[in-house]
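Re: your question about Protein POLLEN DEFECTIVE IN GUIDANCE 1

S., sorry for the slow reply, the queue was backed up all week. Below is exactly what I fed in.
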Amino acid sequence: MAREVEHHQTHYLERFLSDDCIATMALRSSDPIGLQSGVAKPSRNSRKKKKQKRKEAIADSPVISEDPVAEQCGNDSSGTLVESTSENYGIRDNGNVNRISCVGSASVVVVEESVCQNVCGFGELRQRNVIGGGEEMAAVASRAEEDRAEMNGSKEPLPPAQPQPVVNGNVANKLDTAESLDWKRLMSEDPNYLYAVHKSPAKYFLDEMYSGNSLRRTTTLGSEKERERVYDTIFRLPWRCEVLIDVGFFVCFDAFLSLLTIMPTRILIKLWRFLTARQFKRLSAAELCDFGCFLVLACGVILLGQTDISLIYHMIRGQGTIKLYMIYNVLEIIDKLCQSFGGDVFETLFNSAEGLATCSQENMKFWIRRFVSDQALAMAFSILHSFILLAQAIALSTCIVAHNNALFALLVSNNFAEIKSNVFKRFSKDNIHNLAYADSVERFHISAFLLFVLAQNILEAQGPWFESFLFNAFVVFFCEMLIDIIKHSFLAKFNGIKPIEYSEFLEGLCKQTLNMQTEDSKKNLTFVPLAPACVVIRVLTPVYAAHLPYSPLPWRLFWIIFLISVTYVMLTSLKVMIGMGLQKHATWYVNRCRKRKHHLHFD
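Result:
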């Protein structure tokens, strides 16, 4: 149906265009000058022909009545004004665009033509009124939409055109003009409008004086939660953080003393049993671990003993303050990397020892090769770490001995660089947990460095030096403690960590001290004291050698054995005191945490 309507409309409009073009060409050929000037009058015969053509066109107008739109317009008897427009009924051919409109009450079909210059030589806009009628334009519009939907397929029908006002019909209602926005009136009615343009300076100053807090525009009122955060940052968290780091320091010290006292005792007992029984038995996993650690310690002490400390000392002392700061920072970073990787290396060694102790006779060769390779790796890594710690201790000793305040420059630059690298970053709870343990290990390393400085002063210092050493040691420890407190306080503030979390960290460390099974063993404090032990033994050996009496060899051997025995007794006593103290503290703290739910207590 739509295609037939389009065909009839095309035929009808082509006839109109051809008649107009013929008439125009005839006028231009008969009087081109007059046509161009716009004053020429058409001849009588041409006017008659034109009228006759129009009459024939009107007589042929029933062709359009086949259009459903025209039929609805012809049957329209309502007095409402509706205009329906369909672009799908338009014709686009050689630039011609036609539109057919139907007005209900006027019973008029409007046909608009746009004739391009390539057809008739010039462009003009013409409107043809075709007499017709209609009853209900709403039905016409809906049916036209249905025809459009059929022709366009899946396209959604366009909404019908809105009614247009005409002279002989009902006039459509006009939209009321929106009231213009009066900005001054709006701002005067706004109760939050605080600044008036016409205020005097005196009135403005008085309003500022009596309007409340003078910093109300840049600050907000705090809550109870904000108050708790402030007091957590200043008081509660520093205390719990320092307790955690101190307990971690004593745990590291206990492991260091175990390496120097428990491990040699167990090795001597095993050798004594082997010599008395004269029968070799397969070693257990613990005994293999002890022999492996003893071998690493012995090799590290021997190689460090060949190192010329004075040469390294003068090489570092010859550098400027900036270079010294860079050297110390580089050594500290390498030390942290070695400490992190060293735990994995020795875990691998202990795993191989466990496998070698429990393997069958058929797999013995495989496990022996594996244990030997892991032992070689652990030995090389521990020796490297020992040299790094020795160089770091020499650098710190150079700063302490120097008279140009190099120690303070080193502490300030190094510690504030540590704050900058940690505080303004995002950390999770586990990362802060590991960072607190790393601070405990770092504090133990600083103690080993200060022991190195003490040994060097005993050997080489002249004049009163002990008071200066105590002051410098106090400054180093105080700065380290202050930096750790500031770092953890602001880390907890920026990452939303409450002080109770540090109590949980301490509980986990106490459970580790008691050898209690925890949920995640990766959260335990990992510390391998072999490298610090090599440095301490290397440093104290010249001190003992310097105080040996010049006597025959038997007496020298006697004094060596006597000093070693006294040192062993002192270290063993210290080990017992620290170990038992840690055990009692851990037991008390774990029981305390069990009694109180959610660890809501005040330390």
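The chain has a mean pLDDT of 75. The chain has 19 helices and five strands.

Happy to talk it through on Thursday.
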